[in-house]
Structures
1.
Amino acid sequence: MSTAVLKKLHLVDFKNYPDAELSFSSKVNAFVGNNGVGKTNVLDAIHYLAVTKSYFNPVDSQNIRHGKPFMVVEGAFETENGTDTVYCALQRGQKKVFKRNQKDYERLADHIGLFPLVMISPSDRDLILEGSETRRKFMDGVISQSDKLYLDDLLAYNKALSQRNSLLKYFAKNRKWEEATLEIYDEQLIERGVRINERRTLFMDQMKPIMLEAYSKIASENEDVNLSYASQLNEKSMKECLLESRDKDKILQYTTAGIHKDDLKFELNEYPLKKVGSQGQQKTFTIALKLAQFEFLKHVTGRKPILLLDDIFDKLDEQRVEAIVSMVNDHQFGQIFITDTHADRTNEIVKRIVEESVVFEVNSEGVIKELEA
């Protein structure tokens, strides 16, 4: 199975890094240092190269180093077809420049999926604690990395939804109502929404067994967890949903029914994980979910995604850490990047991983140095 490997990374005024150039192992790369020194920022730069944006902050300009006019994130990926260079630059007040092999993209969406990537981070707990939009974004992000048509449908659905909402506000403001005009957008939402729902349903059917297996491997005891896809379209057609909610939409001036209301349900012992799960159980659940994402992308793209593990060993007991290390040693993964505040713990983990590895130390000045093996 092929895998894209990030060999080099160059940062200029990205977050806290004035200028950094790094060369990576094709297997395991670990970054150690205190909290707040910028270890996670290196992983976020790698996320930029694969997904065209930050994992943590969607406002591009806020990722430029404080007080500086621009940023650059550049990387060289080794693939089965040779070396691909990816270049991302942003000047304050300007449009983001994103190139592959020195060619600009007409649409950034065309880059998504070329270098499959999975990030596992403490912020993934938001998937459990936050509202449904966070879980939909996760679902959409995974499917979009493997399905261009899905991404096109999603962009078109969101555009039609925005236009329909604007029309509802216009009707309210001008005290008028035109069913025929509204139905134009309904048709667009139905066409795209039905396909999105079908793709999400298929995705969940594929993800669920992988996720449950990953959880049972990591968990120290037999814990009954479940994952399910909640959608209005599970009960009735998209057309029925829109028709039945029309009076409500008229009053509220926005579209209250459709696949933009979908959600994922996470359960432990048949109760919401958010309410009954311990921190360790919640962390195990999100890690298992992300490892299922990894396996899903590996299966549908035929490529092992790059795996970014941001501070994932914290709040896990020794047995759960050991289980994750065992998975790495089973050669299930391609290139891995790890951050940890505990240098000793990382060194111990890296020693137990039989793959080739490099450990970097990050200090408070934003300087990264490779430690001797």
2.
Amino acid sequence: MKIHAITSCLEAWAPLAYQESYDNAGLIVGDAAAEVTGVLVTLDVTEAVVDEAIRKNCNLIVAHHPIVFRGLKKLNGRNYVERVVIKAIKNDVAIYAAHTNLDNIAGGVSFKIAEKLGLTNVRVLTPKAQLLSKLAIFVPDNETQKVLDALYEAGAGQIGAYEHCSFRVGGTGTFKPLEGASPTVGEVGRDEEVKEQRIEVVFPTYLEKPMVSALKKAHSYEVPAYDLYALTNENQEVGSGAVGELPDALSEADFLAYLKNRMNLSVIRHTVLRGQPVRRVAVCGGAGGFLLNDSIRAGADVFITADYKYHEFFDADNRVIITDIGHYESEVFTKELIQQYLLKKFDTFAVILSEIDTNPVLYYL
């Protein structure tokens, strides 16, 4: 098994196209063509984590946070980032990061928090727009299913919890092959009419090239007729944060105790309690303050995230309870999320959770 097989699988799950513009997800260190001896899954990559990978014969570290974020101009070991990269290269340990692309998918980081809290009816809090395209292709009647199957295989036709979604309408296609053409139907120099289906499917825009390649391979025409449209629709499966409901409403005090227990927290920073039951909960792993208004619009009673600054707590304005549970604490279960995914896909090598606590924030209790 090559490293690129693992990274390709991760990117089919959390496409790099869905990372934020400032991010640096993907293979950061290492040879994608190297054989995998084992995978170590971690939240952060530190020197201790690289040592652990070496000790456990894992030559691929899969992390949530990229060790190289803003770029490196020198590699002389002057800080922990450079030392980690140098140690990984010297020991042939590859480092891969699934960061905001994993934040931005349904079933990703925030959905893992929702799972830990037992939330139901979980959906993306703030879906992203302009990530979808539509393909309209004209196909002879007898090739309709063949072409549709190829498009589905390439990733088209997924809308929410439904797959193999399409629209078709019948009509008549006309054409006249010119000299030099090799028509599948008809003859050069003669006008032709063919009963055809206009098929429409929606697909993630980043899949445009494989989508067009799939339709051309499946279509019998020398020059298939098709149209591509950029859509402004929101993609309900891609976006920031998550929101869901507790099976039963809890008092605010009971919910805070429940949150502390389920997320294994030492402390919770929160805004004033509102004296109302808690049922709907919005969550965002890591620094999610930018989603405050979205959580309020979603009708959340509590918004769980991290990295709130003092003055930002005032923004709750008694419309929702902000709970800051800590950056590490909100994302540490991402390790389980990645491990569970890889174990479902691969069983020929070890996928191990790192035992290193990489939290740089300590509490004196």
3.
Amino acid sequence: MEVVEMLDNLKEKAHRDPALREMLLATRREKEPLAAFCKKCRELGVPVYEMDLIAAGEEFYAAMKRSTNGGGENSPMLEGEDDFYELFFAGLE
């Protein structure tokens, strides 16, 4: 299962379980929020690591950039589209 699919499944569970949702949101208040989030995911049986999350976003963004205008320098900037961590929490809040 890919990182995006795992995060989508976790987000769906968090929408149904307020305690899980709050637990995940609480990771944002930690000193290292990304590391805390990934650790909590692993504790919940979802094998998400920091570099997997970052790499998935970068790969997604690169694929999108390649598909736009042939992937040249005139491709539009798509700010935030590569940050699955932030997108996860945007959908959770």
4.
Amino acid sequence: MPSQGTDFRMPHVVVINPTSSAEITAGIQETLDQAARRWGVTATAVTSYGGPRTIESDDDGRAAVSPLLATAGQHRADAYVLATFSEAGLDELRAAAPVPVIGIAEAALTSAMAHSRRLGVISTVPMATFRHELYWAKLGVSGRVVADLAIGRSEFDLGSRDAANAVLVAGRELVDRRGAEAVILGCVGLGHLRGPLADELGVPVIEPCAAGVAMAAMALADFPPDVMPPRTQPAPPPASYTPEPAYDPGPGRGYAPEPQYGRYS
């Protein structure tokens, strides 16, 4: 990171959830806090409230682009991380933003490839795996991905013990039968399972939002010492922009896993 000179400031990374699901954003923020400390940046997860509830189809991805661009324009940042494994809107945000823009799928793949040549991916719904395969081909890494296994659950159904068991079954299939040497969590809602899953499988498990923050920090470190790209400034909100309300899950609600994860039994 830039050395501490007279103009030093802590780099700030804005992680955009391109869906309107504030509970997902809350889960992302929990993942970011540790990653940001590790890489010497600050990181804030924000919600694109004008976006779709979730991104499970190509239509969802297209619907997310304009609202996420508007959301990015409302948050000052030294770098952006786009928190969707589908990478919807990534090219458009890179074209529009004057600072580094990181996609979490690309960041997770880069991190996993540093560990091994044979990668496995755990996804939520089968439809997502088709989009992922197209993206692997675009990046030229299809031959490195031994399998992308869907557990058949939406991102709003990942906090239960049953979901954790489904993730573990998929992880064991990837490692024990498919020969994966590293596993990527192909959804932002699986971050709370990274540590327990790595302990169970005995291989690196990559959480994509944390990988995105790491790549953003490294991109900022490429600038000369004591020189940072100009931090983006909030633009006047467009007429269609929906401002971000305070998130209050209320009693018994919100995005939170069951507290007891260990052996998944």
